[in-house]
């Protein structure tokens, strides 16, 4: 079992093993870019984990799995052929670009307001 406690930096929660009180990693909450609800990212040290091989499992770089995923992207998950399925990283990139555009628009509006105020 695992418990959480606030980390010394106050920005994240530390994951602690209930059995040995060892540090397992951290949990980050409120990261809405690319993470579905509950908007959490778990960063667990791999040395804390036990990796067990299971029969029937496939490697992440399995050519068959990669071909199946590529075909799914080309066909779209539920839509027409050629639809694009957005990945979490793509969503994050889009979110960052939208944030930058919004910040630029706000800065431009502030510059215009300042120029208009100075003109009067």
| Total individual domains | 2
Output the strand order for the largest sheet: 1-2-3-4
Run of helices and strands:
EEEEHH
Largest sheet: 4 strands, antiparallel
Mean model confidence by pLDDT: 78
**Helical stretch tally:** 2
Number of DSSP-assigned strands: 4
The percent range for helix content is 25-40%
Give Rg in angstroms.
23 Å
**Oligomer status:** single chain
What sort of overall outline do the alpha carbons produce when their principal axes are compared? flat
Distance from N terminus to C terminus (CA atoms, Å) equals 67 Å
Taking pLDDT < 50 over at least 5 consecutive residues as the criterion, the unreliable ranges are none
Q: Supply the helix-strand structural class.
A: alpha+beta
Task: Name the beta content range.
Answer: 15-25%
GO biological process, one term: response to oxidative stress
InterPro entries: Met_Sox_Rdtase_MsrB (IPR028427), Met_Sox_Rdtase_MsrB_dom (IPR002579), Mss4-like_sf (IPR011057)
Region (Disordered): 55-84, 96-120
Keywords: Metal-binding, Oxidoreductase, Zinc
Key terms:
Met_Sox_Rdtase_MsrB, alpha+beta, four-stranded antiparallel sheet, metal ion binding, metal-binding, 120 residues, 38% helix, MsrB domain-containing protein, peptide-methionine (R)-S-oxide reductase activity
Describe this structure in words.
This protein has 120 residues and is an alpha+beta fold. The chain folds into 2 domains: 2-48, no CATH class; 84-120. It has helices at residues 63-75, 88-119; strands spanning 2-6, 13-17, 23-29, 40-44. The protein is flat, with a radius of gyration of 23 Å. The protein starts with a strand and ends with a helix. Residues 75-84 have a biased composition (Acidic residues). Belongs to the MsrB Met sulfoxide reductase family.
